[in-house]
Amino acid sequence: MNDLVLTVDEAAARLRVSRWTLYTLIRSDRLRSFKVGRRRLIEVEALNECIKTLAEVA
């Protein structure tokens, strides 16, 4: 996939976590996101950064 941005559901599926967990990451500023209209989107790069950060902490 060469997507630049992902929906919340797509990002949650890639991380294999629930939507609730993904929104928790967003609210805690661990995962950057932005809104277009009413849709919240996550850049693939931001998702990769989040994964690296979480792996370093683990």
Could you give the order of the helices and strands?
EHHEEH
Task: Please describe the biggest sheet, giving its number of strands, its sense, and whether it closes into a barrel.
Answer: 3 strands, antiparallel
Overall shape = globular
Uncertain stretches: none
C-alpha termini separation:
27 Å
The overall strand count is 3
| Count of helical regions | 3
- Average predicted local confidence, pLDDT: 95
Name the helicity range.
40-55%
From the alpha carbons, calculate the radius of gyration and give it in angstroms: 11 Å
Main β-sheet, spatial strand arrangement: 1-3-2
Measured by DSSP, the beta-strand proportion falls in 15-25%
> Structural class, judged by helices and strands?
alpha+beta
Count of folded domains: 1
Organism: Actinomadura luzonensis
InterPro entries: DNA-bd_dom_put_sf, HTH_17, SinI_DNA-bd
Domain Helix-turn-helix: 5-51
Pfam families: HTH_17
Give structural notes.
It comes from Actinomadura luzonensis. This is Helix-turn-helix domain-containing protein. There is one protein chain. The relative contact order is 0.20. The longest helix is centred in the C-terminal third of the chain and has 14 residues, at 44-57. The chain has one domain (5-57). The protein is built from three helices and three strands. It is globular and about 35 Å long. The protein has helices spanning 8-15, 19-27, 44-57, and strands at residues 5-7, 34-36, 39-43. By secondary structure, the protein is of the alpha+beta class. Helix content is 53%, strand content 19%. It has a three-stranded antiparallel sheet with strand order 1-3-2.
